[in-house]
TrEMBL record:
<dbReference type="GO" id="GO:0009253">
    <property type="term" value="P:peptidoglycan catabolic process"/>
</dbReference>
<dbReference type="GO" id="GO:0071555">
    <property type="term" value="P:cell wall organization"/>
</dbReference>
<dbReference type="GO" id="GO:0019867">
    <property type="term" value="C:outer membrane"/>
</dbReference>
<dbReference type="GO" id="GO:0009254">
    <property type="term" value="P:peptidoglycan turnover"/>
</dbReference>
<keyword id="KW-0378">Hydrolase</keyword>
<feature type="signal peptide">
    <location>
        <begin position="1"/>
        <end position="23"/>
    </location>
</feature>
<feature type="domain" description="N-acetylmuramoyl-L-alanine amidase">
    <location>
        <begin position="93"/>
        <end position="227"/>
    </location>
</feature>
<dbReference type="InterPro" id="IPR002502">
    <property type="entry name" value="Amidase_domain"/>
</dbReference>
<dbReference type="InterPro" id="IPR051206">
    <property type="entry name" value="NAMLAA_amidase_2"/>
</dbReference>
<dbReference type="InterPro" id="IPR036505">
    <property type="entry name" value="Amidase/PGRP_sf"/>
</dbReference>
<dbReference type="GO" id="GO:0008745">
    <property type="term" value="F:N-acetylmuramoyl-L-alanine amidase activity"/>
</dbReference>
<protein>
    <recommendedName>
        <fullName>N-acetylmuramoyl-L-alanine amidase</fullName>
        <ecNumber>3.5.1.28</ecNumber>
    </recommendedName>
</protein>
<keyword id="KW-0961">Cell wall biogenesis/degradation</keyword>
<keyword id="KW-0732">Signal</keyword>
<dbReference type="Pfam" id="PF01510">
    <property type="entry name" value="Amidase_2"/>
</dbReference>
Length: 308
């Protein structure tokens, strides 16, 4: 009986102390003289676990490959991107993810022809280490579309060249390769698939109409793709690239400077003849000399008035 009374007394005592403690805390928190910790101080003083970015066995295996332990198993582009992302996080510091940032956003689309014999050959070319070339998409003659890189990853498709003030086109563009040897027309199924893809890319990334160009536009004299068979007029009618109005061509005024206009369109005029040939291969097709005729000047004048 005495033990029972002692237990009851101890229990009541603990309850009383807990009640007093709770009431006291509430009073302190509500007291106007109590210093309030603002959110900024909380964030600054909160310790984040340093290893808050987990590195699992899969990532460890990828790191081993990079180090040369598993060279026989190449990394996928996504694995490489993940490794690069994680290598940009310094483990010796605390880490708290901000919410405002950007990835590489495509601003241009560049169209190529493969100069190869099949879609399979092109895909194989883009998967060999020594070729050092790639593209985001490959479209077969039958209209099959194969994506080979994430849109946000920088492909190696443009190479050396210049368009306006842009010299590193790979960093801001998407590359599309069309299975074509450069000496034949592009099948309707292939062009239809291209138009669907271009519509998706233009809508998703808000790419301006004038920013759909060919490889030869960017690298005149060095590249000639896509060939004279490519239907730029059909693309322009759908809002991908520019084209002139054949029915309303006006003679260029005597004061009009076609060389300056070509430069404004984007062509690098350091090699003037090469730039003119690239322009004529795209818009004239039948005369590929390095000199401008009156009709050539009329076409340039129409494009200048229409788009620039």
């Amino acid at each position: 009986m005495l033990r029972l009374k002692s237990c009851l007394c101890v229990g009541l005592g603990l309850f009383f102390l807990a009640s007093c403690s709770t009431a006291k805390k509430t009073t302190v928190l509500q007291s106007p003289q109590t210093a309030v910790i603002n959110p900024a101080k909380v964030v600054e003083e909160t310790k984040v676990i340093i290893d808050s970015v987990p590195v699992g066995s899969q990532l460890a295996n990828q790191a081993a490959r990079v180090a040369g332990a598993l060279d026989s198993v190449p990394l996928t582009p996504e694995e490489q991107a993940r490794l690069i992302y994680n290598s940009g996080i310094h483990k010796e510091y605390d880490y708290a993810q901000a919410m405002h940032f950007d990835w590489r956003k495509p601003q241009y689309v560049m169209i190529h022809h493969t100069s190869q014999s099949s879609t399979a050959q092109t895909i194989r070319t883009f998967q060999l280490p020594h070729t050092k070339v790639s593209s985001h998409y490959v479209i077969g003659r039958d209209g099959r579309v194969v994506q080979m890189l994430n849109d946000y990853i920088r492909a190696w498709h443009a190479g050396r060249g210049k368009w306006g003030q842009i010299t590193d086109m790979n960093s801001i563009s998407l590359g599309i390769e069309l299975d074509n040897n450069g000496r034949e027309p592009f099948p309707e199924a292939q062009i239809n698939s291209l138009l669907i893809l271009l519509d998706t890319l233009k809508t998703r990334y808000n790419i301006p109409q004038i920013n759909f160009i060919g490889h030869s536009d960017f690298a005149p004299g060095r590249k000639d793709d896509p060939s004279v068979f490519f239907p730029w007029d059909k693309l322009a009618a759908r809002g991908f690239g520019i084209w002139y109005n054949e029915s309303y061509l006006l003679p260029a005024p005597a004061t009009f400077n076609p060389i300056d206009a070509l430069k404004l369109i984007g062509y690098d005029m350091k090699n003037q003849e090469a730039a003119i040939r690239a322009f004529k291969k795209k818009y004239v097709k039948t005369d590929l000399t390095g000199q401008l005729t009156d009709r050539d000047k009329a076409i340039i004048y129409d494009l200048y008035r229409k788009y620039y």
